Write a sequence for this structure.
């Protein structure tokens, strides 16, 4: 077939994106395992998801210290022995925590899964949280945080959460470096016992997993300590601090964060607001990028997005600008927000954004680990991977009138939180 290279081929946007649905298994102790058979490489990633995020901690850094210290020593192995075995088998261990969940992931070659499940069992069933390793961890994290808080962007991130939700709200709390000093192994052990058990966990396995591998994983999950559903206190009311300014003498840049508390992903307007925020600042050609970077040269980049939490959600706009342009940059952000309220978006711009969203989903779902990440988020939100194409169907159907209506409803100027760290 001869190709006419003088003409660009037409762009075809798929009506839907193929997404795998996990096969659900249930261990004897009730732990749900979502297994995704995909990929060409002989790799398996197993993720254990515990509802053990920072909102549930009784003191700063307790949730993050607990999940990060899991591989620092167990009944059977020292931290060094665990590290050496991981290196020997070419395995990878990752631990993360957000406001609601802690995730422990192990990635290894399929043939070495039994050996690595032994390590994982020691880490999530029999961790010892040794004092010497905890002291090293605290000192490193404290020094890192001291350095990070010198950066205007890091400090703005701390203040923004507090400004959105109010002082003392679990979704807005942040810790001070000196609070690492008070962390004790006994506190980590108590937090672990409360939250790291079969009644507070689900698992997602992805990659080249045979029936034998699934049986091995299910057998491992059966050895997680038993425990009932954990009861959680209701979140307090949101009490935003509408403008927070922290001056930094000699700062060359100012970090700006603007946003407001809205709703979680389960809300019927969440998808529409994601499209609206994509238009505003969700890709390189967005309105805020064109305004602040291309036209004015105030910044290298600016981002706007919707953020999903289990029991809340918020919109956020973030950028760092040259200090002398701080106030005008804030003014320009609100000018672009007003334009979304006052003018319907053009069809060409909206089509471009819809294509960007579809393409991003195709990128994320191109591989078993990406599908696993989507599965984890869907399980957390009590839905299934069917949500992907329901999401894309709604994005494709959204109209300029619908977006303008959302902007008028949710982007009224009153109620916005503005945080500036640097030179106002």
């Amino acid at each position: 077939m001869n190709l006419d290279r003088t003409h660009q081929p037409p762009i075809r946007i798929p009506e839907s994106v193929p997404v795998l649905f996990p096969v659900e298994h249930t261990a004897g102790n009730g732990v749900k395992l979502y297994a995704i058979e995909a990929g060409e490489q002989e790799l398996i990633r197993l993720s254990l998801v515990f509802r053990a995020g920072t909102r549930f901690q009784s003191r700063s850094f307790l949730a993050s210290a607990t999940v990060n210290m899991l591989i620092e020593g167990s009944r059977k192995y020292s931290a060094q022995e665990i590290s050496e075995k991981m290196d020997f088998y070419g395995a990878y261990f990752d631990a993360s925590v957000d406001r609601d969940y802690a995730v422990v992931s192990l990635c290894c070659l399929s043939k070495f899964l039994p050996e690595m499940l032994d390590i994982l069992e020691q880490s999530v069933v029999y961790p010892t949280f040794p004092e010497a390793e905890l002291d090293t961890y605290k000192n490193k994290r404290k020094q890192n945080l001291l350095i990070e808080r010198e950066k205007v962007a890091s400090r703005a991130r701390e203040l923004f959460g507090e400004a959105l939700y109010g002082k003392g709200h679990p979704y807005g709390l942040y810790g001070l470096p000196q609070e690492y000093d008070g962390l004790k192994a006994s506190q980590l052990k108590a937090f672990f016992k409360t939250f790291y058990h079969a009644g507070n966990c689900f698992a997602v396995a992805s990659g080249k997993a045979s029936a034998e591998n699934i049986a091995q994983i299910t057998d491992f999950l059966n050895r997680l300590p038993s425990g009932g559903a954990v009861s959680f206190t209701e979140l307090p009311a949101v009490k935003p601090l509408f403008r927070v300014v922290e001056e930094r003498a000699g700062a060359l840049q100012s970090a700006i964060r603007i946003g407001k508390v809205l709703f979680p992903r389960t809300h019927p307007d969440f998808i529409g607001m994601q499209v609206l925020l994509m238009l505003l600042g969700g890709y390189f050609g967005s309105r805020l990028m064109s305004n602040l970077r291309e036209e004015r040269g105030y910044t290298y980049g600016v981002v706007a997005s919707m953020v999903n939490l289990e029991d809340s959600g918020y919109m956020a706009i973030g950028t760092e600008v040259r200090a002398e342009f701080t106030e005008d940059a804030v003014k320009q952000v609100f000018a672009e927000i007003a334009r979304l309220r006052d003018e319907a978006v053009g069809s060409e711009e909206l089509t471009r954004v819809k294509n960007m969203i579809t393409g991003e989903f195709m990128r994320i779902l191109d591989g078993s680990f990406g599908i696993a990440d989507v599965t984890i988020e869907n399980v957390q939100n009590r839905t299934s991977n069917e949500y992907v194409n329901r999401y894309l169907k709604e994005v494709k159907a959204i109209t300029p009138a619908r977006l303008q209506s959302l902007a008028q409803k949710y982007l009224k100027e009153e109620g916005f939180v503005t945080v500036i760290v640097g030179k106002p």
Q: What stands out?
A: The mean pLDDT is 94. The longest strand covers residues 313-322. Residues 131-148 form the longest helix (18 residues).
